[in-house]
Amino acid sequence: MKPVTFPKAPAWLLAVVVILAAVAPEARGQSGWLPASWFSQGEVDTKAMYPLAERDGPWLVLATTFRGEGARDDARRLVQELRRTKIKAYTHEKSFDYTGSQPGLGLNPDGTPKKMRYANAEQVVEVAVLVGDFASFDDPRGQKMLAKVKSLRPEALAGNSGKSQSFSDFRKMIGLERTAGKGPMHLAFVIPNPLLPEDYFSRQQVDRFVLDMNADVTHSLLDCPGLYSVRVATFTGSGTFDQKAIAAGEDDVELEGRLVEAAEKAHRLTASLRKAGWEAWEYHDRESSIVCIGSLDSKTVPGPQGTPTIHPEIVRIVRELGPDPTRLATGVVLPRTVDGIMLDVQPAPIHVPQAPEGWH
């Protein structure tokens, strides 16, 4: 086996948000153990609104917004047109009620709060069209899609084909006229999924969608009783760092098919390590699949003089499953393989993700 030199992993390989929607049929056939919730139909339903769900995202491109009469129909037309061109689009509806009274400034003579009413008392429906799914705000795939959306000229937005007030008309209301030479969605921008809890990006506990992804896993890392485990393998959907493919962009179906393969590798590696006597765990989230070993309450133990030293179990795992130490001493990085699957170059302890009690 030739020594392997690993370049720094490109960020887009860690940018998989809602794993495995519209997976290729051949990939599905290899994935009997994977949860059914990982898959969705690839046909475009001409009557479907494709409403946004919490499992989508967590970051998306807000392409445009429709409001008023006909908003739903116009949004549906645009979403279906985008999906027919293999762009994963969703709708998100929100209603605004301007008919009731609102708190005003100051107090009435009797000391009660003043009440105010809107000049135009009406109920308004707004339907946003969003494109996803991306793992972070600066996900390169998301930024590439943002640029694409800004340049598109969909038929659904051509002329005055719709009944509702589209985002292009809204720009005129706030003084932003259409810019010559730019597409009708050139003011698109990236937003977080509005359906996610407010603390999603700061909390440590695993969200419901990721829990569902791991519910059928026999040796899930979520069942690990320790606070730490050692990650020995990481699978992000690509076995090689093909810079040309990265520059050109990956086809969504092809990438999602690779993600199925990555998840299966993690599953097979966990079983092989367990058979060899290792306490192995697997874990799948919105970005990757990983395999870990061990269950530890701390990363260090007291040394001879009371100085913390690395936990001996971590040392053992790195020594036996990390790169060949003899070759490493000569400057040659030679990753280990188990059942034909390559392990990480640098095993490392990680926090065990926290699942709510009784999550199964």
Structure description:
It is built from 9 helices and 14 strands. The protein has 360 residues and is α+β, with helices and mostly antiparallel strands.
Keywords for this entry:
360 residues, alpha+beta, 2 domains, 4-stranded antiparallel beta sheet, 9 helices, 14 strands, elongated
User: Quaternary status of these chains?
Assistant: single chain
The geometry reads as: elongated
Tally of DSSP helical segments:
9
Portion of residues in helices? 10-25%
- The secondary structure category is alpha+beta
Strand content: 15-25%
Integer tally of domains: 2
Mean pLDDT: 75
Query: What does the largest sheet look like?
Result: 4 strands, antiparallel
- Radius of gyration of CA atoms, rounded to a whole number: 26 Å
The strand order across the widest sheet is: 2-5-1-6
Calculate the terminal CA-CA distance, rounded to whole Å: 42 Å
Low-confidence stretches: 1-41, 239-247
